[in-house]
Amino acid sequence: MSNKRAITFSAKVYLSLLFLYPAEFRHEYGPSMVQAFRDLCREAYAKSQWFGLAKLWGRILKDLVVTAFVEHVDTSWLIRLRQRTVKPLPWWTVLLATLPGLAVLSTKLAAHYRFLCLDLKLDRASCATIQPVTDLLGQYAGHPQWFYVALLCLLLVSGGFMIERRLAVWSFPALGVLLPTLPDVTLAIHFDPRSGPPSSGHTFLVNWLWPGLMWGVIIAIVAFRRSDLQLPGLAWGLLGLLVLANPFVLLSAGATLLLYVAAGLLLARRDGLLAGLLVIAGEFWIVDSIFDPIYGMLIWSYNYTAELIVSILPALCFLIIAPIGVLRARSTWGRIQGLLLPPLIGLITGEIIHSLVVRGTPGTYSPGMWLVRGTGIIQYIMALLAILYAQVGNGKIANTHDDKLQPEGF
Amino acid sequence: MAETTLDPEDMLPLTPAVFHILLALADGELHGYGIMKEVETHTQGQVKMGPGTLYGSIKRMLAANLIQEADERPDPTLDDERRRYYRLTDFGGRVLAGEAQRLARAVQVAQSKKLLGGAFPSPASGEV
What we know:
Helices cover 78% and strands 0% of the residues of chain A. Chain A is mostly helical. The longest helix of chain A is centred in the first third of the chain and has 53 residues, at 23-75. The model of chain A is unreliable at 128-143, 245-249, 295-299 and 393-410 (pLDDT under 50). Chain B is mostly helical. Chain B has one domain (2-112): Winged helix-like DNA-binding domain superfamily/Winged helix DNA-binding domain (Arc Repressor Mutant, subunit A, Orthogonal Bundle). In chain B, strands 1-3-2 form a three-stranded antiparallel β-sheet. In chain B, α2 (16-25) crosses α3 (32-42).
């Protein structure tokens, strides 16, 4: 093989090895790298012929493997997210965003205290003292306690809309909490909330009328806004999976979830990752229904400390810590952590306490129960992922009005 | 952009590859292979850069506004027009000076501890 052919062959091999680098880097610097390598080959061959070329290859292969790895890490979307700074929202907006969580927390604490009174038959005088508190915040059994929380959320959402002439970012958690309570609020208008929801009307409204309305909204959004949505393919795929997963959970839960996804994806186009707060608030409902003593059957455990922890955990993690983390974050990565970590910690902690406390009561965790709670949680995680992906999918990070306030990280 | 707002001290210390590339460009514009040769020359062959290290560093240095791509070739008739030339920015020059001073201070400390030409042997060669 002649001098020229040996160099050309080496350059061709090097060119083919450039596939190890990220495509973006390869397209930008690939030709220059091959040219520099060809020059190095010419020099090495002129100095020591084949031995020189072999020695050069030994050095170049090490350089290629190490730097290809470095470039993959450097161009990964995670690194870009870390570098992208955003402006934290003011503390007064954080306070407003956490108000629904604080209200739910108060309700839970009052309900827990009332439950202790009923179950432990505490001093009646003491129970009588707290009775007005629980009446104010709502009753423990059934749904009507949410009436007051829903009212607060309605005030926050409408107030935010009047002040900012659009859905205020700080009202997203309130909106998320409000949506599933609407059927109950509707019921409360027609029936006495203190007597609990009537079964037949409740079943029809919650299982058929409300889901039907939600499906109508989804279909309308998809039909009329398809051209404007321009979502990444995977986001639509996740949405499709959510629809398919519906038969495994209550129809109403699935339908409400779809409303979250649709509203969240639309809001994500304007407010970026902050729209995830809506889904987080929605996620609160399903986790709360799992951990709540009535649904979660911790009532049978008689472990009141565990019962208290798991009953306040969802509100604390999903409606208070997560909004604070998201709204006060200083980078896009911080916002993602704020959206994902508190709910994850809440879920894991709750499940651990649950499994430890109810372990001694066989039958409470039937396969069907696992299927329902597992599917429900997965659905909400997927909803969140759909919104995250709509923002950061394909390595692209959408600019939102908040993100534009700060330059990219240096 | 970054030139007006960033303090050169914020960029220090530089990685060896970035320092040697800046040093190579201190005399004027160079293309990739030219930078490699210049680094090899001014380190007496101790530092030999591969294309991956060179262009990975160049990518980050362009983003950090330490260097910029030259629009015009020094002499198009004498060179391949596909070659891309790079030159130091003002900010890059200040960063280079800052790093050189930092290293000089380190050398002074080494001298005061009699490490240069003293009891410890210096390494024969190295690669970036």
